[in-house]
Amino acid sequence: MRLLVYGQQQPHYSQYMLNQYILNPALTGIENYTDIKVSHRHQWVGIDGAPVTTYFTAHMPLGKQDFRTTPTSFRIPGENPRGKAYWESYTAAEPHHGIGIQMINDKTGPLNRFSGYLTYAYHLGISAKTSLAAGFGAGVNNLRLNTGKLDFGIVTPVDPAVYENRSLNYFRPDFSAGVYLYSADYFLGLSARQIIPQKLKFSDNSVTTTEGKLVPHLFATTGYRFLLTDEFNLLPSVMVKYIRPLPVQADLNLKLQYLDLCWGGVSYRTGEGFAAMLGLNISNALNIGYAYDYTTTRLSTVSKGTHELMIGFIIGNKYGSWCPKNVW
Asked: CA–CA separation, 193 vs 116, rounded Å?
């Protein structure tokens, strides 16, 4: 007997719009500083064994030359640094490199997956206000199965597939790649994670084989920034995700930002549910975001929702920016 296992293999993120780097390595080194993000997500609270995801990311530019010559470079007292002057003075990126690191731990029931990557990107201005970046990531996945937490019921207390395999501990190489087109008022990104399909299998060599396959995850993101007033920006965005053989899934997002101080947003994920989000830039070195997800599936009867917390740290912020110039 053979059992094939497919499904969602990369974690869900509700606040990916605050850290698109977690989906697309082309954003490596996009800003003028070292950008650090720490996030913890507890999905479907109240359900035993539901996914719990924690990640750490950090990336920085190399050879990026910026000068204090425009309002996008430093704060002007009394003026919104993301207001009308931002559009008028925005310039494309100077050619530069970026390097970064991603560490992600995702635990679902007895299965734990740890992924670590090093990333690189190159940024280039292709017009006066538009830039293009391309990047890639290389790393390793460690998948570990805690067989002591497996429960097959009272009829079959021990599954033959794991009888001689008390622990599943696989290391597999992993790669990601992406491109990112960005300007003052729009962005468009394409990326692929888990590029190389790989089989995972453990068995008793006689009766049962349990087989899974790591499949590529494809992402497309786009968004536009509307200047409602000189104090408020409205930022609609969309993410489309495809994982063969699953149906295409989309996230529809809307974010309202006040000056460069705080923001609120809502999101709808097709076939799954809604999310509400809030964020605050506490200083030019610290920001925080929170999201609450409510599922519209049958899980809503047993789940108390999903909580996601993200904390951002900015190092080397020599221009004192309270919010990113290029990622919003």
From this structure: 12
- Hey, what are 34's tokens? 């070292």
In the structure encoding, which two tokens stand for residue 229, read together?
């007033």
Nearest in space to 11 (alpha carbons), one of 194, 229, 150: 194
pTM of the entire predicted model: 0.86
Q: Computed from CA positions of residues 185, 137, 242, 56, in that sequence, does the dihedral angle turn out positive or negative?
A: negative
**156 SS3 class:** coil
Q: If pLDDT is split at 50, 70 and 90, which confidence band does 4 have? A: very low
Indicate the class that CATH gives domain 2-315: mainly beta
d(CA 45, CA 295): 11
Q: How many CB atoms lie within 10 A of CB 311?
A: 15
Two tokens at 168? 């599943």
The H or E element containing residue 202 is strand 198-203
- Alpha helices per DSSP H over the chain: 84-89, 160-163
φ, ψ at 130 (rounded to 5°):
-125, 135
Query: So where are the chain's domains?
Result: 2-315
Given its phi and psi angles, is residue 301 left (phi above 0), alpha (psi -120 to 50 degrees) or beta? alpha
pLDDT at residue 31 greater than cutoff 60: yes
The β-bridge partners of 144 are: 112, 169
Per-residue pLDDT tens digits for 200-238: 765 444 444 455 678 899 999 999 999 999 899 999 999
At residue 89, the 3 state secondary structure works out as: helix
Using DSSP, state whether 229 is helix, strand or coil. Answer: coil
